[in-house]
Design goal:
- By secondary structure, the protein is an alpha/beta fold.
- It has two domains: about 55 residues, DNA polymerase, domain 1; about 240 residues, Rossmann fold.
- It has 13 helices and eleven strands.
- The strands form two sheets. A nine-stranded mixed β-sheet has the order 5-4-6-7-3-8-9-10-11, with helices on both faces.
- A hairpin with a 2-residue loop joins strand 10 and strand 11.
- It is globular.
- The structure holds adenosine-5'-triphosphate and magnesium ion.
- The site of magnesium ion has 5 residues, from helix 7.
Length: about 300
């Protein structure tokens, strides 16, 4: 109940819900400026509301033993390939953002589909017994593919589809709003995975040219931090995909530089670079991980999904 927050009466509660702040979690992770603008209150009132939300959720300093307890709850979702799983330490982790970047057809969207299916498996089969939220920014989500991948592991395809909440994001603001609104759904529906495919495509299309670069990076940064907090507070895995630049001269020098440059490079905890190899083979390089060494793994994309070669 939003009205349990200091400074929130029925009318502000209504305005909060109407602006997409449906849960205490969503309020806790926003900024005073944003909240003030969204519900038309002063900045200091907004700040009080946010602080109260953080208090309710007990966000703040904690001792390391609590942190250790919390980290014990980290779940891992199998990718379908043992090679790939061991490269990243057992699967895609909750309480973290995993970024998958690479050129077109390298398998980013396939991996996103695969994890949306495997998150539904019970723990002994490498899943988290949970549901997925799929934010599709490029219009490439395919339920038909989910049916194929689910049938391959004896999941009822109808149920598998029902366990994936999808939204098509039409621009970067919409994309960010969808993430904000995700908080409420996460608890209600036992979501364990949030996919954003791809995180940068709208930003790239909307913020063109050098003079827009700073604003784009600021906004992306905010978006990523929001996702980071959701991953952390709700104990979900966040998978974001990102295309590498086709034209090396647009913003950055390195042709394998992902869109978003340094902002994206610093927020995601685990970064995977995919590239094509012979036939259906793909090579995945672990570029950045807080606790695993750099390395590479080979997997294949088949009709059944991601597998070992
Ligand atoms: P983009 O940057 O264009 O979004 P991507 O990295 O998301 O590219 P994917 O869509 O994940 O690329 O990969 C596409 C590739 O996956 C196809 O080229 C094909 O090799 C493989 N693929 C897709 N569907 C199937 C299928 N049903 N059976 C076998 N392979 C498939
Ligand atoms: Mg794709």
């Amino acid at each position: 109940m939003l009205t349990q927050l200091t400074g929130v009466g029925p009318s502000i509660a209504k305005r909060l819900s109407e602006s997409g702040y449906n849960s205490i979690e969503a309020i806790a992770v926003t900024t005073a400026d944003e909240l003030a603008a969204a519900v038309d209150v002063g900045k200091s009132t907004a700040q009080k509301i946010i602080e109260s939300a953080r208090e309710v959720l007990k966000i703040g300093f904690e001792t390391a033993d609590n942190l250790y307890e919390k980290r014990k709850n980290i779940g891992r979702i199998t990718t379908g390939s043992k090679n790939l799983d061991s490269l990243i330490g057992g699967g895609v982790e909750t309480q973290a953002i995993t970024e998958v970047f690479g050129p077109f057809r390298s398998g980013k969207t396939q991996l996103a589909h695969q994890l949306s299916v495997f998150v539904q498996l019970p723990a002994e089969k490498g899943g988290l017994n949970g549901k997925a939220l799929y934010i599709d920014c490029e219009g490439t989500f395919r339920p038909e593919r989910i049916i194929q991948m689910a049938s391959a592991v004896d999941l009822d395809p109808k149920k598998a589809l029902k366990n994936i909440w999808c939204a098509r994001a039409y621009n970067s603001d919409h994309q960010m709003l969808l993430c904000q609104q995700a908080s409420e759904l996460i608890k209600k529906e036992n979501l364990k995975l949030i996919v954003i495919d791809s995180i940068t495509s709208h930003f790239r299309a909307e913020y063109i040219g050098r003079e827009m670069l700073a604003r784009r990076q600021q906004k992306l940064n905010k978006h990523l931090h929001m996702l980071e907090r959701i991953a952390d507070i709700e104990n979900v895995a966040v998978l974001i995909t990102n295309q590498v630049m086709a034209k090396p001269d647009t913003f950055f020098g390195d042709p394998t530089e992902p869109v978003g440059g340094h902002v994206l490079a610093h927020v995601p905890q685990t970064r995977l670079y995919l590239r094509r190899s012979k036939g259906n083979r793909r090579i995945c390089r672990l570029v950045d991980s807080p606790w695993m060494p750099e390395g590479e793994a080979v997997f294949i994309i088949t009709a059944e999904g991601i597998r070992d070669p």
